[in-house]
Write a structure and sequence with these properties.
binds heme C; 6-stranded antiparallel β-sheet; two-stranded antiparallel ribbon; 12 strands; alpha+beta
């Protein structure tokens, strides 16, 4: 998380694609780029005009190594009616920078640091660095579970500030929030009507775009039992994919296992999953965290509701289910039938 936003003048290697190769989508040159955003899934480019930055019209899909258009279409994100004029009318200050910097000041349009720095999660650190004590810094583990998760949800969610517009502008990030406060006093999560698919949600309420881990996680039983984002992730870096504490399958087994009161309720893991040890179908995250939330084109991030989406939900509400994704060849009847014969799974629940 420490280096999403970079200035190509000081980091010339930050630009991943080769800009000397012409592409009809790319109508800018290296000299137009004031900032490069992103290094994992997609890379976007910003140009400076006056004291504002604006997104350029093409983005790089890192997985497929191709250019794609970057224009948020009207009628998609909630803020498009307030910024109708296309990219050069959409400054990054109100729409992006609060989540991609520390202390973005809406008056002066300055930051103390680009990217997700220490103070974004630990609060102001000046007096702590002079005289370090426990009392003058926020340690998220000592917050209650709501405020602890809010440390992450402030950026990992889709929503709107309660106070919009703020000084005449519409913001897409929780202006004024600081860790330790209640995020709910600043921010409302994007609304969703059950049964309707929207820009942000599938019809069953699962998120269907990226940056919605918070919207998902608050619906889980784990959230209400005091589990936090950092029960599974260490944001200071672990070397594992997505900075999980241990490789994904072992992360779950810290709290789950055949004899754990937290479930799953079966004599062995294989008896719960009905797939052999070593099979992709035996991995917790493949059934409980399917990759269905779009970040760019067909590149998706994982759901964080942790619920099992049934094949019946796919039929009625068009939400992809994990069995169907792996067993597309065998067809939907195959997995529904198999599930009906799994004694430890409720047929009533699978029919919903
Ligand atoms: C994205 C949020 C985030 C950022 C950024 C972040 N931290 Fe943390 N930090 C946490 C959380 C959550 C905890 C408590 C859980 C844990 O240890 O992972 C924590 C715990 C700590 C601890 C206590 C560890 C312990 O063993 O008790 C220290 C020290 C710390 N962070 C220092 C830093 C420093 C220095 C930086 C900047 C270089 C930083 N953190 C950046 C979220 C963050
Ligand atoms: C200031 C906004 C902000 C806060 C606060 C924040 N994140 Fe992030 N997080 C980001 C951004 C931006 C990225 C994308 C980074 C990238 O692409 O390298 C990210 C990426 C991640 C990733 C994916 C890393 C990877 O390599 O796949 C994880 C996991 C994550 N954050 C967890 C957390 C957790 C847990 C917390 C709370 C302790 C947290 N974040 C707080 C903005 C934030
Ligand atoms: C509410 C906070 C928030 C806002 C507002 C926001 N982002 Fe992000 N952004 C994140 C988080 C968190 C992630 C990483 C998690 C994810 O994508 O699921 C991310 C990821 C990204 C990535 C992908 C990084 C990578 O390495 O692939 C890019 C590029 C990006 N954001 C650009 C933007 C732009 C451009 C805007 C404004 C139009 C914007 N963001 C607005 C929080 C935010
Ligand atoms: C820090 C401990 C902890 C970790 C790590 C953990 N869980 Fe949980 N999990 C719980 C607790 C506690 C419950 C609630 C149990 C209950 O209802 O009594 C739970 C419940 C669940 C449930 C029930 C449904 C729901 O809404 O939450 C599922 C499914 C689940 N966990 C999957 C996972 C998966 C998959 C992983 C690994 C990615 C994982 N858990 C990692 C503690 C944990
Ligand atoms: C092949 C798919 C699949 C895999 C893999 C899988 N599960 Fe499940 N899991 C299910 C289904 C189906 C249910 C029942 C869901 C329901 O009733 O809503 C379930 C329910 C659960 C529950 C709640 C019910 C209970 O028994 O307590 C927990 C907890 C759980 N799984 C944890 C895990 C963990 C941990 C792993 C990895 C060790 C895992 N699951 C791997 C399909 C899977
Ligand atoms: C129960 C464990 C658990 C909890 C709680 C949890 N995550 Fe994750 N998260 C994971 C696992 C496992 C992965 C995927 C790792 C992999 O693919 O190898 C993941 C992936 C991610 C990613 C990378 C995108 C992707 O899907 O690959 C981000 C960002 C992220 N989590 C943020 C969060 C945030 C923010 C929270 C809290 C709102 C949170 N997570 C809560 C286990 C968890
Ligand atoms: C991540 C991919 C993946 C997921 C998710 C998955 N499976 Fe599988 N499944 C496999 C693979 C691979 C096999 C081949 C045998 C093995 O490895 O166990 C298999 C085997 C099977 C078999 C046995 C087929 C035979 O001919 O013996 C059945 C039945 C089955 N899966 C049903 C399901 C159901 C129902 C679900 C959802 C609850 C599901 N699978 C989820 C990958 C997956």
């Amino acid at each position: 998380m420490a280096n999403v936003v970079r200035d190509p003048k000081t980091h010339p290697d930050a630009i991943l694609p080769d800009l000397s190769k012409p592409d009809p989508l790319v109508k800018f040159t290296k000299d137009d780029i004031a900032f490069v955003y992103g290094s994992k899934w997609k890379q976007r480019y910003f140009t400076k005009k006056g004291d504002d930055y604006f997104p350029l019209g093409a983005q790089w899909d890192i997985t497929h190594q191709v250019w794609r258009s970057y224009q948020v279409a009207s009628g998609t994100d909630w803020w498009t009616p307030f910024y109708p004029g296309g990219n050069m009318q959409r400054p990054t200050g109100p729409l992006c920078d609060g989540c991609h910097s520390v202390n973005y000041n809406i008056e002066t349009k300055t930051v103390t640091e680009w990217n997700v720095g220490c103070e974004k999660c630990h609060g102001p650190g000046a007096s702590h660095s002079e005289r370090p004590t426990r009392a003058n810094i926020v340690n998220p583990v000592r917050l209650d579970f709501v405020r602890a998760n809010d440390v992450c949800i402030q950026c990992h969610s889709q929503g709107q500030p309660l106070a919009n517009p703020i000084k005449g502008k519409y913001y897409d990030w929780p202006v004024g929030f600081e860790v330790g406060k209640s995020l709910q006093d600043f921010w409302k999560l994007e609304e969703h009507k059950l049964g309707q698919q929207s820009f942000t949600h599938f019809a069953d309420g699962t998120a269907h775009k990226n940056r919605m881990q918070g919207n998902d996680f608050i619906t889980s039983q784990m959230y209400t039992h005091g589990v936090t984002c950092f029960s599974c992730h260490d944001v200071h870096g672990t070397g594992n994919n997505a900075e999980v504490l241990k490789p994904a399958s072992l992360t779950c087994l810290e709290c789950h296992g055949p004899n754990s009161p937290n479930g799953p309720h079966a004599s062995t893991i294989e008896a719960h999953t009905h797939h052999k040890a070593g099979s992709a179908g035996n991995e917790c995250i493949n059934c409980h965290m399917p990759k269905i939330e779009q970040t760019i084109a067909d590149v998706n991030v994982r759901a964080h509701t942790f619920k099992f989406i049934t094949p019946a939900t796919t039929e009625t509400l068009k939400v992809p289910n994990p069995c169907g994704t792996c067993h597309a060849k065998e067809g939907p009847e195959f997995t529904s039938k198999a599930l009906r014969n799994w004694g430890n799974v409720s047929g009533w629940r699978m029919a919903q």
